[in-house]
Amino acid sequence: MYLKSSTFIIGLSKYRWLKVVEQLIFNHYFSMDMII
Known about the structure:
Blueprint: H1 2-35
């Protein structure tokens, strides 16, 4: 039970980190498009 919950939390944090990176990349390209 403990191992399962810890792996779930790690997976969740990795997923959230990926979403943050995705958002940063999207914002970067969007702002570049706005400048051009």
